[in-house]
Amino acid sequence: MSLLAPGWTAQDIVAHLRSIGTAENRAGMARFGINTATALGVGNTDLRPLARKLKRSHERSLALWASGIREARLMAAFTGEPKKITIEECRRWAGDFDSWEIVDTVSDLFVDTPFWRTLIEEFAADEREFVRRTAFAMLAWAAVHLKKEPDATFLSYLPLIEVHAGDSRNFVRKAVNWALRQIGKRSMSLHAPALILAQKLAGSPDKTARWIGKDAVKELSDAKTLERLAARKV
Description:
It is a single chain. This protein is an all-alpha fold. It is built from 15 helices and no strands.
């Protein structure tokens, strides 16, 4: 097959991914807790450069997702069009989530949709582990990437973090912690309320909430974190 071209179809992409995947890469992924049931064995260090060579295409991203293949689904997230994907399609994709890696990658795409806040509310209320993780992965990504979003938006999500800080499932608690830390590092105005919540959770009788709080307090109190915040224009 010729070198990757911007107009490649989903079938072309999958064929190329099959040709470069390795069992060694699959074994490495498994060590990081990635679900490799449908993996071809192509690492992100190869996938991201490939994605940058492709034109974004909503229809192709849907076809890549429908393949069920790990790498194809990551490529769907990398090359999808957030302004064209519908909320129903987002919900369907979330229902397919089976790995933290897929969740975190697709969450970055979902954050750029016009209905990202609706998705966060819905996904946080969902009892499925990977769907709930999506809500907080989206919140973490939004705190970093949505520069024009007012800080008040993220302040309003601290109660949601507190509500779900007792979810002991590994992939949820880590995402809740991630969201709290990213909100606290977004700006000096958000740092104080996020730190207050982290300190409250650190003193909780609940083991999971206590872990989330202590870990967040550690990062939000770190001298380098405080220096970076102080250096930003607010």
